[in-house]
Design brief:
The complex is a heterodimer.
Chain A (H helix, E strand, L loop, with lengths): L28 H56 L23 E6 L1
Chain B lengths: L1 E4 L2 E6 L8 H15 L4 E5 L5 H12 L3 E5 L6 H5 E13 L7 E12 L1 H8 L2 E5 L11 H7 L2 E3 L9 E3 L5 E6 L12 H5 L2 E5 L4 H12 L3 H16 L9 H13 L9 H15 L5 H18 L1
Parallel strand pairs in B: 1-6, 3-10, 3-11, 4-7, 7-10
Antiparallel strand pairs in B: 5-6, 8-9
Helix pairs in contact in B: 1-2, 7-8, 7-9, 8-9, 8-11, 9-10, 10-11
The chains are: A mainly alpha, B alpha/beta.
């Protein structure tokens, strides 16, 4: 050990941490604690896995919805574009191509007789 | 603002006893020709000349769903175009973490597109029955719709404020002549935008065929009734000349009671006096009522 007068830095001071001295020797009981903690961790991870699988299912379902909605909207946009530029007027007495289907809304229809 | 729409559409179908004589077919074909040329059509004629039925028949031939509006003095632009009808409120209470309470609340006005807007938007057939019963200013929105093919929407409604009219949109109007009671004069600008077909009543063959089809009476008896009504109409004794409805009422009642269209039949005479006498005379004018009844008795002797 060097004398206090010869200490140049804090690293020259010997401490329990510096010499890796454990206050308590390693015991067999630590292994039991680690087994317990790892068991808990394993359960948590399994729960996490289940949650991710559920989330994956939800995402896939939503993706399918988005895909079908996109297809429907693209079809509607195409039909609207066709309506805006009709090449021929509807001849008298003949229903137009989309007659009876003004759009895809859920119309209430009521027959009227004359 | 939320935008909703009136969503009930009509599908006109002819009754099994609908009569289409060459006279009716000719009017319908003319109307369809004008529609194909891109013009709105207007059936104008006195009561009982078949304006509404013809409008429905033309709409049926066009094959598109129909929205029907009946003109009324109380009508305003919002009854055609749409307006604000109530509010929609939304409240979210988020207490996912028990110690944190988060609330969100908002309220939006609810706009409902009315029938003219829906028809213009989706290219439906609009039948505006008795449109001159509405005040002229209520019909102003139609001017741009029929000419510029644009519907001017209020700024309150979400969107661009203008709606481009669908190419399949067709408007069919009906009205009584302007000298009729309970009607307003239509704007010259509106009348100028449509092709008006004047209906002066049916020809003899059509009147007989319709009366027969609607009553189920035999041909000869129907002819007698129609001749009697036509003679009363032409006698110029009546305040309101009897229409084909009078023929149908007399014929149907006679059929129901198994009577005969003969002046000797007391039941027939009574039906004619009740139906035609009251229909043709102004209420309250006793002198006129007795004049019409006298004329009717005289005609009964000659025509049945």
């Amino acid at each position: 050990m060097i004398g206090a007068s010869r200490v140049k830095t804090l690293g020259d001071i010997r401490t329990a941490l510096g010499i890796r001295l454990r206050s308590k020797p390693a015991q067999q009981e630590d292994s039991y604690r680690d087994v317990y903690l790892l068991g808990i961790e394993k359960l948590r991870m399994r729960g996490e896995m289940r949650r991710l699988e559920r989330q994956r299912g939800r995402v896939e379902k939503r993706l399918a919805e988005i895909r079908s909605k996109l297809e429907r909207l693209a079809q509607m946009a195409q039909e609207d574009a066709e309506h805006e530029a009709p090449s021929h007027p509807t001849p008298p007495g003949k229903p137009s191509a989309d007659a009876g289907q003004p759009d895809r809304r859920p119309w209430k229809r009521m027959p009227i007789q004359y | 603002m939320m935008v909703e729409e009136a969503t009930t559409l009509l599908e006109p179908h002819p009754l099994p006893n609908f009569v289409e004589t060459p006279f009716v077919a000719s009017i319908v074909e003319r109307a369809l020709t004008y529609v194909a040329a891109g013009f709105p059509i207007h059936f104008r004629g006195a009561s009982g000349t078949g304006k509404t039925t013809l409008a429905l028949h033309v709409a049926n031939r066009l094959g598109r769903p129909v929205v029907l509006i009946h003109g009324d003095e109380e009508f305003t632009t919002s009854d055609l175009v749409g307006g604000e009808h109530g509010y929609r409120t939304r409240k979210v209470i988020d207490n996912f973490i028990h110690s944190v309470l988060k609330t969100e609340e908002d309220m939006s006005r609810r706009w409902v597109d009315n029938r003219l807007t829906v028809a213009c938007k989706y290219g439906l057939t609009l039948i505006y029955d008795e449109f001159t019963r509405s005040r002229p200013e209520a019909n102003n929105a139609l001017l741009a719709v029929l000419q510029e093919r644009v519907l001017d929407l209020p700024a309150d409604r979400d969107g661009e404020g203008y709606l481009s009219v669908h190419p399949n949109f067709v408007a069919i109007f009906t009205s009584n002549p302007e000298e009729y009671a309970g009607v307003f004069r239509s704007q010259d600008a509106l009348r100028d935008r449509m092709v008006t077909l004047d209906l002066d009543g049916f020809d003899n063959e059509t009147e007989i065929a319709i009366t027969q089809a609607k009553s189920g009476l035999g041909r000869r008896e129907t002819e007698r009734i129609v001749r009697l009504v036509q003679a009363l109409r032409e006698s110029e004794t009546c305040d309101f000349p009897p229409t084909i409805r009078g023929c149908i009422m007399v014929a149907r009642t006679l059929k129901a009671l198994n009577g005969a269209a003969s002046s000797q039949d007391g039941l027939f005479r009574q039906i004619c006096l009740d139906v035609l006498g009251s229909e043709a005379a102004r209420v309250g004018s006793r002198a006129q009522v007795s004049r019409v009844r006298e004329k009717l008795c005289h005609l009964l002797e000659h025509y049945s």
